Structure formats: C-alpha cells, structure tokens
Amino acid sequence: MDIDLNEPTRPQLAALFGCSSRWIGELRSKGDLPADGASWAENLEAYVNIKVGRYDPDMLDLEAERARLAKEQADAKAMDNAERRKELASRTDMIAAGTGVIIMAVARLSQVGAQVAQGDTKLRKRIETAINDVLTDLSMTRIEEAVGGGLDDEDAPGDEDA
Q1: Which is nearest to 39 in space by CA: 90, 4, 89, 86?
Q2: 2, 13 Cβ separation under 8 angstroms
Q3: How far apart are CA 151 and CA 144, in angstroms?
Q4: CA distances (Å), 44 to each of 8, 34, 50, 79, in order?
Q5: Is residue 81's pLDDT more than 80?
Q6: What is the rounded CA–CA span in Å between residue 17 and residue 27?
Q7: Is the pTM here over 0.90, yes or no?
Q8: How confident is the prediction for the chain on average, in pLDDT?
Q9: pLDDT in tens, 18-66
Q10: What is the pLDDT of residue 161?
Q11: Could you tell me if 11 and 31 are in contact, meaning their C-beta atoms sit under 8 angstroms apart?
Q12: 26 φ, ψ (degrees, to nearest 5)
C-alpha cells in the first residue's frame, strides 16, 4: 500500500486507528472526522478529539451509566429493607397517618367549647367560633407553603396571568 503523506485514504486511517474503513466513513458522515482531502494531521487531531479531548454531554458514558444503575439498584434495595424493618414508611401510609391525626384533632377541638363553657351558651359560642376560625385558616394553608415551597410555578393555582 502506497502511503500518501498529504492525504490519507480511508483504509490508511482505519489501519492507523485500528478500526474499519466503514467506521471511518461513518465518522466522516457525522462530521467527527474531516472529509476526504484533509491532511494526516487534521485527521489525527480529529481522532484524538473523539477519543480523549472532546467532552460530549449527550454521549453516554457506559461506565458512568453502569455505576448510576448500580447505585439506583442499591438504593432501591436499601429502601425495601428499611421498609421491611419498619424504619421507612410509604408516602401513602404517611398521608393516611397524618390524615387520621388531623381528623382526631378536629374531633377533639370540636368538643372544647362544651367542656370549657359548662352550660354558658355565650362562652361556648365564642369558643366554638374561635376554634372554627383557626381550623378554617389551617384548612386553607397548603402544606407546600407551610414548609417553604414545593410547588413549581406552573403548578401554583391562580398564577395563570403571571
């Protein structure tokens, strides 16, 4: 095979890079390697960029993806184990427990007026009104707002004009 020192052929590049001529053609069609007529130096620089020098965030890093998958699998197993040991509860269970506590608190607070007033109807009415006002205010408060956020802008009600 004659070597042209100015313009390498596809087979020459394939031999240099240790790959197939077809792969060289695919790299050229994608624009990763220069087209026919480019110098050895241009081809070599492009190849080095492909192998080590150029970071493409859209290109999958197989090792990183395997590590991420292994971590996700380990995390899932750890969560399953914690749930079995009763160290972790599901979101559904936590919502049900929180709802039960709120229902119980509302029921108990509804009885305060009668217990404290002991027959004084005006006092009982004032206590019940005050408790109902507080419960109404609490029922209007969103959990996300109370803990400092949690809603995305597009999920927030009433922000259609913003």
Answers
A1: 4
A2: no
A3: 7
A4: 10, 10, 10, 49
A5: yes
A6: 12
A7: no
A8: 81
A9: 888 898 888 888 888 888 888 888 888 888 887 776 555 555 667 888 8
A10: 46
A11: no
A12: -65, -40
Tokens of 125: 């009415």
- Map tokens 């077809």 to a residue: 22
Number of residues in the chain = 162
How far is Cα 40 from Cα 54, in angstroms, rounded to an integer? 19
Question: Which residue type sits at 101?
Answer: V
CA angle 68, 73, 79 (to 5 degrees): 125
Cα 153 to its chain centre, rounded Å, is 17
CA angle 146, 152, 154 (to 5 degrees): 125
Tokens matching residue 143: 């959990």
SS (H, E, C) the chain: CCCCCCCCCHHHHHHHHCCCHHHHHHHHHHCCCCCCCCCHHHHHHHHHHHHHHCCCCCCCCHHHHHHHHHHHHHHHHHHHHHHHCCCCCCHHHHHHHHHHHHHHHHHHHHCHHHHHHCCCHHHHHHHHHHHHHHHHHHHHCCHHHHCCCCCCCCCCCCCCCC
For residue 60, report the phi and psi dihedrals to the nearest 5 degrees: -75, 135
